[in-house]
Amino acid sequence: MKLSSRAKILAVTLVAYVVGDILLTPVAGFETRPVAKVTVVGLATLGLLFVGLVVAIVSLVLLFRRSSRATTLAIVAAFLYFPAVLAERTDHFSSLRPPTAIEWIELVQVVVALALIGVGVWTRRESTGNTSTR
User: Fold this and answer.
1) Would residue 2 be called left, alpha or beta, if left means φ above 0 and alpha means ψ between -120 and 50 degrees?
2) Helix axis angle, 5-23 relative to 100-129, nearest 10°?
3) Which residues are CB-neighbours of 68 under 8 A, at least 6 positions away?
4) Which of 41, 46, 55, 113 could in theory staple to 77 by disulfide, Cβ–Cβ 3.0 to 4.6 A?
């Protein structure tokens, strides 16, 4: 069974989202600020960021299993990114300024998250349009 064109685009966008989220973690090496300097708001939004990462991975798995919930989870995952970037942009994430690489990755990730929302809605319309009973 092959994925539809829209589902393939959603899969690629989900992979880009997951890669972007991973690049924002200290594991990737771009984030150099110590965890001790992260504020309470920053920790809360960091938790949401990781939940969004897990939800995106689950959405990708469900997409390949042809579950109708995959698109909804993809949209939810994208929305879970925004609290972290808003906290960062309003200087509520950490007492230190973000490294330049993190700032650029965050901007790219905003575009990817917005694209994920759009593609998720677009794909959802295709999947609901093809079913006559729900």
Assistant:
1) beta
2) 160
3) 127
4) 55
Q: Which residues contact 29 (CB under 8 A, 6 or more apart)?
A: none
| Model confidence pLDDT, tens digit, residues 66-93 | 888 999 999 999 999 999 999 999 989 9
pLDDT tens, residue by residue, 93-116: 988 898 899 899 999 999 999 999
Summarize pLDDT for 16-26 with one digit per residue, the tens: 999 999 999 88
65 contact partners, CB below 8 Å, separation of at least 6: none
